[in-house]
Amino acid sequence: MEQTVCHKEDLQPGEMMESTLGKHSIVVCRASDGHYYAFLNRCIHQGAPLSKGKLCGAPAPTEHVGEYAFEKDGDILRCPWHSREFDIKNEGRMLVNEKFKIKNFNVTVENDEVIVYNG
Amino acid sequence: MIDTDIHERVMYEELLPYLEQPWRRYIEDCHWIQEKHMPYTQPAVAGVDRADAKVPDGRPAGTDLAFMQEQLLDQNGHEKGILTGALDPSPSSMHGWYEMATALATAYNDWQIDKWLDHDDRLYGSIHIAAQDPQGAVKEIERLGSHPKMVQVLLPIDDILWGDAYYHPIFEAAEKHDLAIGMHHNEPPLYYGKWPKYFIEWHTLIPLSHMNVITNMIFNGVFEKFPKLKLIMIEGGFTYVPFLMKKMDQQYKDLRHEVPWVKRMPSDIIREHMCFTTQPLEEMKKKELMQIIDQIGSDEVISFSTDYPHWDYDSPAEALPPNLDDDLKKKLFSENARNFYPKFRK
User: Fold this and answer.
1) What ipTM did this prediction achieve?
2) Residue B22: which pLDDT band, with cuts at 50, 70 and 90?
3) What's the mean pLDDT when you consider all of chain B?
4) Domain-by-domain residue ranges, chain B?
């Protein structure tokens, strides 16, 4: 199944939108480098709608107490409820434990349209 | 479902019409504002709120009944919900000028009835008091105690040990009016009277502040003096309860001579008088949940809560482990709360 979800200019880098793919609610994100990513719009923790969260950055893991290094600005999808962080450029894997991920879909841009594929 | 922790929210300006003079002028003309606040704003995407709970017109989460009905009560099929919101901080936690805190508590209660309880049959309320002045607090409980939708007196868990005899008139009035005591942490300093450096430390150890108050209430003989009194501990979860029961029972066997007014095992007092709301639930398997219930020795002292509209909201459909027995689900989601609250029992 495939679905055209928006024109490529409808989303700027660092922005996301809710859409549908068949019966699924999905969230389409545009990363800081301009690439598009799509995920099931449902947090794996308690089912919150991820599109109501925030596409932002995250403090990177650091070596020393009190040391902060902000990174990946526009590439981290943060849940609107419990604030869990998922890396959209790493298949939607959770920052604290990469074993867990939100379901991701393939995305292409054809004729300036953003198309999401299931399967 | 009976949801035992829902936070409605008031803005100070909404309280003004409910505030008697001279109190109103201290806010309108003199810009009085309570200065005590939790020193963390950073926890989640929208501070301490669910990011999707902001009212569509831009007002803060929890300020609009219609939106709460749509997003919480209707969507989850709530049978009842108990409002536990309060000012920031609770009047009983305010620094200084407790006469102002008493006036604000009264205004808050009238606003709560007028704007919420009168408009949705499902919603029940909490009587707010300024417990720094127990006589004033008792007056407020007497004023509203017979209101059919007021089911508890709310006390904050802060740096105050409520078991002290100074506060007993409050428990006496609550018991007399079939009101439970609801306790919800309200900015408790946790580390030896101080705030920890990080929110994650504070939020991890909230159950510690709940354990402080339970221990204090039991060994100060509150439940021997007020045998019908009920206490619900809100938003501390329940996974600490097995430890606390075992520890208090062991201490009681050794040290009963110091508190001879306590006549029952602390674990029995907990089972007979207390209830614990579920949220914020740790992720656990059914087996783990059943072990905790087994250690508590009762499946009737835990009651589901969402904490809507806060960031650490628990979804009724998703937060507990799957495949629980129907009988247990009924107890957790409604029967335990119905049997706990004296006014619901009637």
Assistant:
1) 0.88
2) very high
3) 95
4) 2-345
Kindly report, residue by residue over B186-209, the tens digit of the pLDDT.
877 788 888 899 999 999 999 999
For helices B241-255 and B266-273, the axis angle rounded to 10 degrees is: 140
The model's pTM: 0.95
How far A112 CA sits from the closest chain B CA (Å)?
31
Interface list for A 12-71 with B (CB within 8 A): 45-49, 52-54
- Write out the DSSP string of B226-237: STT--EEEESS-
How far is Cα B242 from Cα A1, in angstroms, rounded to an integer?
51
Tell me the CATH class for B2-345.
alpha beta
Angle, to 10 degrees, between the axis of helix B206-219 and the axis of helix B266-273? 110
Residues in chain B whose Cβ is within 8 Å of chain A: 43-46, 50-52, 283, 311-315, 317-319
Asked if B235 and B307 touch (Cβ cutoff 8 Å), the reply is yes
Measure in Å the smallest separation between the Cα of B316 and chain A Cα atoms: 9
Contact A81 B318 (CB under 8 A): no
pLDDT in tens, A31-66: 999 999 999 999 999 999 999 999 999 999 999 999
Closest listed residue to residue B203, CA positions, set B3, B40, B5:
B40
B315 to A80: CB separation less than 8 angstroms, yes or no: no
Per CATH, the number for A2-117 is: 2.102.10.10
Half-sphere exposure (Cβ direction) of B289: Cα atoms closer than 13 Å: 20
Tens of pLDDT, residue by residue over B36-75, are: 788 888 889 999 999 999 999 999 999 999 999 999 999 9
Sign of CA dihedral B1, B273, B235, B207: negative
| Other beta carbons within 10 Å of B287 | 8
Domain boundaries, chain A: 2-117
Maximum separation of any 2 CA atoms in chain B, in Å: 60
Alpha-carbon distance of B255 to B276, in angstroms, equals 26
Return d(Cα B286, Cα B309) in angstroms, integer: 26
